[in-house]
Amino acid sequence: MKEINPLKLRLPVFCAPMFLVSGPELVIAACKSGISGSFPATNARTIEELEQWMQQISSSLAPDDAPWIMNLITHSTYTRLEEDLKLVAKYKPAVVITALGSPKPVMETVKAYGGLVFADVVDLKLAKKAAEAGVDGLACISSGAGGHTGQLSPFAFISAVREFFDGYIAVGGGISDGAAVAGAIAAGADYIYMGTRFLPAKESMAEQEYKEMVVASNSEDLLISDAITGTKASWLKPSLIKAGLDPENLNKSGDRNYSSTSSNKRWKDIWAAGQGLGRSKKIESVANIVDELEQEYFTAIDRFKKVTTK
Hints:
- GO terms for molecular function: dioxygenase activity.
- Keywords: Dioxygenase, Flavoprotein, FMN, Monooxygenase, Oxidoreductase.
- The protein is of the alpha/beta class.
- It has a single domain, classed as TIM Barrel.
- Helix content is 36%, strand content 15%.
- It contains eleven helices and eleven strands.
- It is globular.
């Protein structure tokens, strides 16, 4: 039987790895607030910078802080994976979440030091493949997620995955307050993948204008399209317009390349967000966000108890 909350988190929340947004400061602030912070390895532009980040995170966290998480692309076009894995073996993140490819390339390295491997999946076909590969957990990216998004609702995804998988489930997609965290846990998830709520955090690497746009926008300001990267993703319409694009008439890119040396100008100039948009009312610290999430979480639990009391 799997251990409940093996990461010993204050709240069952992962601050999701966000491209060009998650960095050492955001990860450290999340972990010190009692939730797990994560970042994509690709946010560090060179292997030297990546080691600097991993060393900074490792040395900044105390034993009683929440553990940190690393997100690794395993797609065949990602040329830095072997070097990244050497650093994973050295700094030993508690969890490695794989994305855009099979989790198999990281399994031996992470298992060797006792870490957990989660696979980022957007549909049941990928979830079954990852489960067959022997992962400890699945990060189920559902409808409503920012960036590359899924199509199933979080509740439908959890229910379907539980039919064949008894490992850990982290679910993300439109979950941006404590009540939604409680609901997803009640539905069978173990952890919540939350990104958009932390986009305008003071510690995030997002540009100031990006943070302000997130605070000023709501879910009606989103557009799901594969025209930008070749893969369906959820974009902020105001950023498309700012970049000189017409949200109603986008030409499909078709370019899928996850190499660490490829141009990421599209992601730099055009910004992603999920359906949790509208929940952030101001730019504030991660600690304040987590405090609010915790209050909402336990308020929801109390409400649930009252509703179910005969």
